[in-house]
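stuck on this chain:
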Amino acid sequence: MVEVQPYKPIESIDAETNRKLTGHYRYYGVTYNIQPLVKYHYSTTKLLYHWMNRRSQKKSYDWEEFKQYETDIVLW
């Protein structure tokens, strides 16, 4: 899984997550391996959502707002 360090700036977390996911997809992205990659992407997204909401006392994102944010930064 991707390790999240919540004290870092959001832009840094996004860049690091994208870099790690891209490397994972390039290494494991072989024929007939799409389902584990989709599962890994979903798990990583849920983990990132969890840690982004722990950055402050109040909830930073709801799930729909986070999914929109995710498509804006292209975590895939």
